[in-house]
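Aim 2 progress update. The chain analyzed this quarter is reproduced below.
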Amino acid sequence: MIVVAGEALIDLVPERPGDRLGPLSPRLGGGPYNTAVALGRLGAKTAFCSRVSTDGFGEALLDGLRAAGVDTSLVQRGPEPTTLAVAAVGADGAAGYGFYASGTADRLFELPPELPSGVRALALGTCSLVLEPGASAYEALLRRESGRGVFTLLDPNVRPGLVPDANAYRARFRSWLPYVSLLKLSEEDAAWLGGGVEEWLAAGPEAVVLTRGAAGMTVWTRSGDEVSVPGERVEVVDTIGAGDTVNAALLHAVAGRGPLSASAWSAALAYAAHAAALTCGQRGAQPPHAGSLSTPTPPVP
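Predicted structure tokens:
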């Protein structure tokens, strides 16, 4: 089983990209939530670990997880409201966000008991590692599960508007790296965080994947491999959830399967790029189902 831990929220997405005062459509979202849904749709045994509101949005979020086949037994509940993220989608489909997260349910996440022994991977990232007091609980979960040998993926997915002290967050990010198996980040995240691949690999991760949108993605490994794949051409509706789909596809392909060859990494990256391209062709975070992909999950030795 793969466990995804982090926030579940509602994206308010413009019905007409670029229209600042046009109607907004509520969509299920949150980076970790999207990753869990994508994993479920790809056919991976998945559980979601978070704290979700008991309000109507919270019920809809749980319904979305169950529809994707995601186990919700690790979800904590609370009466506080659901976090809202208002998306601004540009003419190129790229999305920016404004967050309404004060006093919301996912901020009050508490460290759960040790995860089941059958868990082969844990994924974390985005707002959940910024907003206290939940951020410290998610950080403790990362350290604890890494310490008992669970494969871990970290996607910082930085939202600068939510970070009260940029330098403190950058230092905290570096403190997580010894507990991370796979670091995946966008080139925008990399530029904001500072540092570089060599520094990150030396701190602990087995591999670093850098995504470049339509230009594709590259992986660097501690064994010295560097592998790149191009992005797939697609008519972009918006990019919401594309990076989360990359997380899911990579986890589904490589988590817990030992060191990979360069050819295996190439297949895994191409699979992730294909899944992300399909997501970009849909409005809002709509990861593809396994049956809609032109190739199956790549075999990994």
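The mean pLDDT is 90. The two ends are 19 Å apart (CA to CA). These observations will guide the mutagenesis experiments scheduled for the next reporting period.
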